[in-house]
């Protein structure tokens, strides 16, 4: 049996693939392609993609929606024994939300050196204190795929804008 | 006519009173008493109080709910020509959300030197860059009343906890 065919259903790579599936749904909906899942004891209890434009709500990032779904699934706001997987490093809003919800771990795909809040620009997930919770952070899981999806999206968006400008001129 | 009786319906103090009304609703619901309103061209278009326990959602801060309500009222996520009034300095999550929604101004009551993200601990509202929006900040509007409400809440909460511990011992 080819060992490469065995999928480890508990691995970070497996759950990040699930987050990437969400990100691709965002791409298909013309949203910035970021996806997230929340895992509790090996089971996905929340999944979401970025829906800022669809919901006309600038706070509707993938992480925020997945955290809210996970809280609903557990019937409370403490996400103990949970890991959040997200294809891109969380922004300050999402990192702040993560600290409030208290998952044990955060795993992300590509980093955001410009405005990331899990070590890229600042680190709100391990501020040690003043914020009252810290998370273990794992970065770079399927980072290449996550970044490529974002880059393709923005390249296409620029192309469409150029065509629109051409049509208007 | 007594000038003191004239209420300036466009003043920061007036709108902060409205935010304090929301905070008192939180207090009555046994929630940490923080309230917020969003004002667009002199009109309140979103109002909310902290509902973390009621909604079992740690992201349900007054600011988040008021921002979402305001976006719904305007039919889009850009809160241009808007001011957010909130009784306590925003946390990193809420400050990050404010930057995404882009109101012109943020006015808050009491500061939070420990974990505030509008200058108390860090300043996400005027990071100049990397974040892609900056807000004018006014602090200390009805700060005394806002702080007193929070202090009373936590004093009562400690008293109740002490009684519960006594009952269990």
Automatic annotation (TrEMBL), chains A, B:
Catalytic activities: adenosine(34) in tRNA + H2O + H(+) = inosine(34) in tRNA + NH4(+)
Keyword Repeat: no
Sorted UniProt keywords: Hydrolase, Metal-binding, tRNA processing, Zinc
Subunit structure: Homodimer.
Domain (CMP/dCMP-type deaminase): residue spans on this chain: 10-122
Phylogenetic lineage: Bacteria, Pseudomonadati, Verrucomicrobiota, Verrucomicrobiia, Verrucomicrobiales
Active site: 63 (proton donor)
Protein name according to UniProt: tRNA-specific adenosine deaminase
Gene3D superfamilies the record matches: Cytidine Deaminase, domain 2
Gene Ontology molecular function: tRNA-specific adenosine-34 deaminase activity
UniProt keyword Transport, yes or no: no
């Amino acid at each position: 049996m080819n060992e490469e065919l065995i999928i480890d259903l508990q691995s970070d790579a497996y759950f990040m693939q699930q987050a990437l599936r969400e990100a691709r749904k965002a791409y298909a909906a013309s949203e910035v392609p970021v996806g997230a899942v929340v895992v509790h004891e090996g089971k996905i209890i929340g999944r979401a993609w970025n829906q800022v434009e669809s919901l006309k709500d600038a706070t509707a990032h993938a992480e925020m929606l997945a955290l809210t779904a996970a809280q609903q699934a557990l019937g409370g706001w403490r996400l103990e024994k949970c890991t959040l997987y997200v294809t891109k490093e969380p922004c300050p809003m999402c990192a702040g939300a993560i600290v409030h919800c208290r998952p044990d771990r955060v795993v992300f795909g590509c980093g955001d050196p410009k405005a990331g809040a899990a070590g890229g620009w600042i680190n709100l997930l391990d501020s040690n204190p003043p914020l009252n919770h810290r998370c273990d952070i794992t970065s770079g899981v399927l980072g290449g795929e996550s970044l490529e999806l974002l880059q393709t999206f923005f390249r296409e968006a620029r192309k469409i804008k150029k065509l629109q400008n051409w049509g208007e001129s």
